[in-house]
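pinned: reference chain
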Amino acid sequence: MTRSWKSSIRARYTVAAAVFSLIILGALGATLDLVVRNHLQTTAFDQVERVASQWSATARGGVLPRPIPAYAPVELIQVVDAGHHVVDASKQASSTVPLSWMRPPPDDRFQHAVECRPEGDCLALMAIRLTPEADAGVVYAARPEAELIAGGGLELAIGGAIAFLVGMTAYRTWTLVGRTLRPVAAIRSRISEITVSDLSLRVPVPHGDDEIAQLATTANQTLARLEDAVEQQRRFASTTSHELRTPIAGLRTQLEEAVHYPGDIDPHETIRNALASTDRLEAIVDDLLQMARLRQGDPAPPESVDLADLIRAEVANLPRRVPIAVEARQGVIVRGSRVQLARVLNNLLANAQRHAGSGVDVTLTVADGQAVLAVTDDGPGVPPAHRERIFERFVRLDDGRRRDPGGSGLGLAISRDIAHTHHGSLRVEDSPAGARFVLRLPLAKQAESRPGDGRGQGGPAGERLPMRCLKPSRLVDPRSVTDAP
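pinned: its structure tokens
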């Protein structure tokens, strides 16, 4: 396909530079032409006026040599009478044909003009009327125009210089822009070779630290991130297919046994097992959908969330397994999605209950402008080598598989993704006993400026509460109190 010059940056820049230089140089050339022409003509008129004035004074005295002596550059001198008859002339001037038919009027005895002769040359001529009388004669003095301005030579020279300079400007612009865009062409060529199946190629980075080098560096960084993302997607797809294949295969085996051996299989037991496998599939699919929504980067509109109230609500809704002790600072406000933060807290509490031996502790404090929510159990804990691995998708340690065989292995991964979307973090930290999961979230601005907003504390919003109201309060699940000895 033939490309138009308008689609080429190199061609557009070259044309723009040529047009711009042509306009500038054209204006300069026209100015130079006027200045040079005016200077040469003024010099010529001064010379012929001086000679004409000299011989007009001599003619008024009545004494004129024959022929009139003349010296270069003013060699054409004539004295004519009122009837335009040549009275006297220099050797170079005609003795019969006057140099000009111009006759100055009595009130303007000095006149100059450019007279072009039939031979083709032009003269700078000065005519001086001897006296104001009607029968006064006229003295003519003339010289040829300067060769530089005769016949348009000056314009041709200036035009040639302009054309040369415009051509040089266009050539240099074409060369420099081509040299500048050469790395871009190399980058484009390399990017055209990159495919989804092979993202390991990188674009060449030119020397220096100019915009093109920064573009190439950014492109390589983007390609590296894209390669990592594609690799993660591949691993995710492989792991997901493996995790889905297991319950599907179990479900298929149960159904095939029920079909092939109807007399040996209890149909009710088969249905219960099939429902259990279906529940596991549903849990995996729901968690995958949740992760997809989080990865889309389009969260729900943020709202103010009081973490102490959220903890109370989630603890109250949990099924009774082990006692949960809550020590939460009041008035800790963050901005985000209440539903998603409730999902994180529910995952952490459910996980702690599964692994706890006798109880779970929940604390909420403020440190360095962040809300710090810690969920600690007294179970076997998480080995340091696995503290990051458990946040990977579908990763479940042996103890987790034993305690919750139907889990999807996505709860902690989803919880960390939610923490990241809220500009926070979720990690496992050291604990004297058991596992300690710590969620850190940035405080809302209103919470940073006001330790408490009055909600649930008996004070109006915005009122600064006494310091005793900011002390942590011990909250215990009312259902776990009945089980305490």
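why pinned: The longest helix spans residues 9-60. The CA atoms of residues 137 and 299 lie 105 Å apart.
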